[in-house]
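The protein record quoted for completeness.
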Amino acid sequence: MPILGRILRDRGIVTERQLQEAIQHQVLYGGRLGTSLHELGFITEEKLQEALAKAHGVAAMAVDLREVSPETVALIPRAMAAKHKVFPYQLRGKTLFLMMVDPSDHGALASVGFTLGYIVRPLVVPEFRMIQLLRDYYGIDERWRYNDTHRPLALPAEAPDVHTAAARIDEAGTRDEVVESLMALCRHFFRRVLFFIVREPWVVGWTGAGEGTDRDLAQQLRFPLDEPSVFQTVTRDKTMFIGRLGADEQNRRLLDVLGKRATTNAAVFPVVVKGRVVNLVYADNGATGNVKPTLGELLVLIQRVPRAYLRIIRRRVAEARKAVEDTAVEAEGKESG
């Protein structure tokens, strides 16, 4: 959000360098800009909420979770809360004070107001706080924190060949486009593939494709990096692994979920950006198949992924800088007029 960036910079809350680091973080790990700024330690929740309120043009209100009642929470069904990323904070007469990540989402406001029959007053809260609220009160998985907020409405069909998939990595404009192109590329070398996001101390399943594997299965997976596993080894050494996974508990968990024989092999390779492992890709040739040891072509093509991430980061930083400058010029014009 360019307005948020400008507000934070103009108030001296964050620096231009911190904004750039937050954009890099956002490209790699998804979520909103404010979430990245907070996770990086650049801003407090209070300062972020004040800036978000100003950016959205809504009143800022201090949130006291002691005022949340089970009766008010029960007003909004779990499915509606998950779909619109909203949380019912208080009910005063016929007015429902609704916490939202995006108060400008008029569709969500209309849906809640029409369904419940209340006057809805929106209150903005940071994304990371909404994640916590939906998890604690509705049991909604917090993995949506990694959603790519720049994801296009529709992604192209799976690439028909290796060269098309590789070319799409180079052309990708968002993280999810990079990921989908990488998955398509790997599917030309393996029967099934799982893509993981590395956020220490966890490796979090994000998407999957191939024999008996899909996004839903992938998102059931989460492995700790502080316990022995193939994921720990690859993340630590930043090198590709090909072989049998071994008898460690976390490896056995993965084999059990995939129904894979322990006597067959698999491959796990890292995506490294600026010296940091940000993604892991697990691949095999099915429950009983073995991976071929000759993967030189794939290893070369996969190097396009970190280059694509860096290109997207540079473009996003440039766009954000221009948007902030344009907004400032527009504001100055209104003031002088």
Summary: The first helix runs from residue 2 to 10.
